[in-house]
Description:
Blueprint: H1 18-32, H2 38-49, E1 57-58, H3 62-72, H4 79-91, E2 95-98, E3 111-114, H5 134-140, H6 143-147, H7 165-171, H8 177-193, H9 198-218, H10 224-248
Antiparallel strand pairs: 1-3, 2-3
Amino acid sequence: MQQxxxxxxxxxxxFKDINDFNNNIEQWMVDIKSKFTKSELVGLKRLIRFCAKVxxxxxAKIATITxxxxxxxxxxxxxxxxxxxxxxxxSLGLLTIHETxxxxxxxxxxxxxxxxxxxxxxxxxxxxHPKTSxxxxxxxxxxxxxxxxxxxxxxxxxxxxxxxxxxANYAAYFFPAEQIEELYRISYIHSKLFKLSSVDLxxxxxxxxxxxxxxxxxxxxxxxxxxxxxxxxxIFRKYRLNNMFNAYWGM
Length: 251
């Protein structure tokens, strides 16, 4: 992605306006605030404030953000602390980070895109299992998805027409409607960044979904959205490189 002014990244925003963004941040903080150290929270707070011009999106330099903590906060942070915070936020599904480059090909500042809040829904909740006590439920988590065949349930909410039907039908065996929409939104955003066709989007997103389900069957996944984001970036990059190769050789 080529660096540009913040206005050029408006299409990455997932929020209607700044109030919608702030409301989502409040929900996220209830869910994941305890995952960050005090210094990391200072950095996160500053990054959020740099997302006011385009709701939920910032291309501010790390040096600019850390300098603001030195000038405006009692608890200043270092560059390494900020990078540790953004890495953690990305793994939790709060952030999507896009690298950019200048016209001469050299690296430039990242674009930070905040994701809409989606509570950490375990895919196992979409599977049928007998009622259990709270302690038993906490221990179950997503073990059912690793040990049982998928059982499709009726969706409690109609899935938006924005979501590709093929993707939705496959995902419905494992996830509730709200989660399906979030997963497809991640795929759609990356398809634009990697300049994939609608056909590639459909194929690559289903491939990524298959990898996600396979991983969940083998291990606990702390953040479904964050984990899926990493899978999508890897697979979509493969499709992009393959398209470039084919174009070069006239295939």
